[in-house]
Write a structure and sequence with these properties.
single chain; Aldehyde Dehydrogenase, Chain A, domain 1; Aldehyde Dehydrogenase, Chain A, domain 2; about 40% helix; globular; NAD-dependent succinate-semialdehyde dehydrogenase; oxidoreductase; Aldehyde_DH_dom
Length: about 450
């Protein structure tokens, strides 16, 4: 049994029953049958369904957003934006998908794209709609079918997504929610009817899924953790950089793989940036996520709050200084104040920590080489943000930052039309854009 807990109040919400073994088998059989029909549908049928799903998200935006806010604590305004982004994601593939699947001609050969079968998605709670749509929209366009194992604390969101797809007129079995626990995932991956698996989550979860997929020789896409650098050089617009840094650190209460987590600032502007950034972080309003005046809601759970508090204690023990913040707020709920860590020893293991909460690390860099060295000195390589108005510096960062994505003079954010993913221990494979569509398709070469 799964029971939602409102992290803003600690109050229990709706409960959801876990599937039995027989029910899992029924859903697998239904997915296999659905694929036999869906794989041969024309592109117009697929794009029409994607457009109708987008309409369902639009028509139910506020209700869907409220479910996410109550289950994992993000502000209602950010939940609404997430639902709207999902509708845009479905529309993107409805509009651009056919062109992405155009055959490519070579001398004496043609390369064509073909669906593979049922794809299993193991998804997290932090962007509970968007993470699913990043897999689901291209899955439908590809001619595949999808099965979702969502995080335990967002089962209401999972059920709502399935409701939207069914209401849009999807064939039975095209997309199914699986209310199951993590111990059932390995057996699903091993099942011959599952052709591939995609996971967004922790390193530990990624290793387990990759191991299971490897044993079954199945394709896997992994989007794992990140400790994204936010680099500020003297030529940058400091006011804009500091303002953006606050948003980049506290978005989703700091619970995003592509949140800016490590602020790496050139020595010449370190003090000025710290003054501006500190003022912004101190002004962050944490409170009721349903209130439009709230900047930041609670962390997703009391357990997540404790995890961040334990990490902050590790930083203190390593010699780092918590300038302010990083404290539980009085009253009910998993609230933590926004804060800043300084004097973090760059050569200590704590500097590699991914803090999934609204506390930033600040590092000082003497020059661009030192900034790039600090940026790359972690096992992650998901995203990054660099702030410079020097073309030569920009070229260096674009070439030398070890990450799957880089934003220049902007906060990093995912877009339906742009590839999303990382390198190193942040995973492999890509979501979104044409590359996300192609990940789980057979590129078939036709000669003659």
């Amino acid at each position: 049994m799964f029971t939602s807990i409102d992290p803003a109040t600690g109050a229990p919400g709706q409960s959801y029953r876990e599937l039995t073994g027989d029910e899992i088998e029924t859903r697998l059989a239904r997915a296999s049958a659905a694929f036999r029909d869906w794989r041969v549908t024309d592109y117009a049928t697929r794009t029409a369904l994607l457009a109708r799903i987008a309409e369902q998200f639009d028509a139910n935006t506020h209700r869907l957003a409220e479910i996410a806010t109550r289950e994992m604590g993000k502000t209602l305004k950010s939940a609404i934006a997430e639902v709207e982004k999902c509708a845009a994601g479905f529309r993107h593939y409805a509009q651009e998908g056919p062109a992405m699947l155009e055959p490519r001609q070579f001398q004496g050969a043609t390369a064509t794209w073909h669906p593979m079968g049922p794809v299993l998605a193991v998804m997290p709670w932090n962007f509970p709609y968007w993470q699913v749509v990043r897999f689901l929209a291209p899955t439908i366009m590809a001619g595949n079918v999808g099965l979702l194992k969502h995080a335990s604390n967002v089962q209401g969101v999972a059920a709502a997504i399935e409701e939207m797809v069914i209401a849009a007129g999807a064939p039975a079995g095209l997309f199914q929610n699986l209310p199951i626990k993590s111990d059932k995932v390995a057996a699903l991956i091993a099942d011959d009817r599952i052709v591939a698996v995609t996971l967004t989550g922790s390193e530990g979860a990624g290793m387990k899924v990759a191991e299971a997929a490897g044993r079954a020789l199945k394709k896997v896409v992994l989007e794992l953790g990140g400790s994204d650098p936010f680099i500020v050089m003297p030529s940058a617009d400091l006011d804009l950089a500091a303002k953006t840094a606050v948003t980049a650190r506290i978005q989703n209460t700091g619970q995003s793989c592509i949140c800016a987590k490590r602020m790496i600032v050139h020595a010449d502007v370190y003090d000025a940036f710290l003054e501006k950034f500190s003022a912004g972080m101190r002004a962050v309003v944490a409170g009721d996520p349903m209130d439009a005046a709230t900047d930041m809601g609670p962390l997703s759970s009391e357990a997540q709050l404790q995890t961040v508090l334990d990490q902050l204690q590790m930083f203190r023990e390593a010699g780092a200084k918590l300038m302010f913040g990083g404290e539980p707020l009085p009253g009910k709920g998993a609230y933590l104040s926004a804060g800043i860590l300084v004097d973090v020893p760059a050569d200590h293991a704590v500097a590699h920590e991914e803090v999934f909460g609204p506390v930033a690390m600040l590092f000082k860099a003497d020059d661009i080489d030192a900034a790039i060295g600090l940026a790359n000195a972690v096992p992650f390589g998901l995203g990054s943000s660099v702030w410079t108005n020097d073309p030569a510096e920009r070229a260096r960062f674009e070439r030398d930052i070890e990450a799957g994505m880089i934003a220049v003079n902007a906060m990093l954010a995912s877009k339906p039309d742009a590839p999303f993913g990382g390198i190193k221990r942040s995973g492999h494979g890509r979501e979104l854009g044409p590359y996300g569509l192609h990940e789980f398709m057979n590129l078939k070469t036709v000669i003659g």
